Amino acid sequence: MLSEDHITKLSIVKSENRLDAMKRSIELLGINPVKGKKVVLKPNFNTADPYPGSTHPETLRGLIEQLNEMGAAGITIAERSGPVNSEHVMKELGVFEFVEKYRLEIVNIDEMLAEDMVKVTPPGSHWKDGFLVPKLFQEADCIVAAPNLKTHQYGGVFTMALKLAVGIVPKTINNYMRELHGSLHMRKMIAEVNYGYKPDLIVMDAMEAFIEAGPMTGKRKRADMFLAGTDRIAIDAVGLAILKDLGSTPEVMNTPIFEQEQIARAVELGLGVASPDNIELITGDGGSEEYARTIRSILDEV
After folding, report:
1. Most-buried pick from 65, 155, 190, 197 (CB within 10 A)?
2. CA 260 from chain center: how many Å?
3. What pLDDT is recorded for position 100?
4. Taking 70 as the threshold, does the pLDDT of residue 3 lie above it?
5. In-domain check, residue 192
6. At what angle do helices 232-246 and 261-268 cross, to 10 degrees?
7. Quick check: 4 pLDDT over 80?
């Protein structure tokens, strides 16, 4: 559990240049959690639908190159897709083309066995009997999460850093996804999955967002932004502020950010900051600073 006076830094870069924005968002944090470590990279390959339905190919390539520049000892992409075949999704997105060029390893979570997993039961869990997550994520030297900014029409309300974690729960070993999507506690259960792993760096591509529908397709709007930080709750809180600024669904617009069930449950579990007051927005240019002031005002609304 974080102390009440804990402050997490979150960078905001507003730019029309995707790769420049991604790189600057990481550099602004002034940290290097990947140097000399074997990195597990968790992208967003729920389906093969074009960005923001899935991680943008330029973002994936740029992030891999940036992690290598930061001194990563190796990179493993670990992911499973949603209702569709994970290997087919990775092929359609061209992920395997990166393997030889960047000496990557790819782990398809759909192909992992029960002995590759560990059971997680969060305090006060809304899962019937906990859930499994790959040991890979609990034993990793370093985890980098790469969510997109979008709404979720199937009960999640939004899908960013917290929702990204659902992709580490296997769908082939148990009927976890049926349980999740059939529960009245879906949003709380999404937050609870995050009890099973902790990313060391989160880089969110918000160049475009789904402001309605999602997560595969939806109404798009440009935001021209990248966010980076180490706190999943902070990332999602700022992401929600961006959606509010862009104009989004009633569920997003009419609910205070820290009253969203995903965020409120994550706070209960001590997974990150508990208040907008614990988030420090950092920028490196005038345009980003101006927009950060807008986001700050939305964050501070009650």
Report:
1. 190
2. 16
3. 86
4. no
5. yes
6. 160
7. no
Residues 179 and 205: beta-carbon distance below 8 Å: no
Q: Is the residue at 1 inside a domain?
A: no
Beta bridge partners of 42: 145
Residue 208 has a pLDDT of 98
CATH classification at residue 165? 3.40.50.11440
In whole angstroms, what separates CA 131 from the centre of its chain? 19
Residue 206 half-sphere exposure, CB side, CA atoms within 13 Å?
A: 31
Cα separation, 135 vs 49, in Å, equals 28
pTM for this model (two decimals): 0.97
Alpha carbon distance 157, 23 (integer Å): 29
Is there a contact between 12 and 281 (Cβ–Cβ < 8 Å)?
A: yes
When the pLDDT of each residue in the chain is averaged and rounded to a whole number, the result is 97
Position 41 in a domain: yes
Residue 76's DSSP bridge partners are 40, 105
The H-or-E segment that residue 283 falls in is: none
In a domain, 28, yes or no: yes
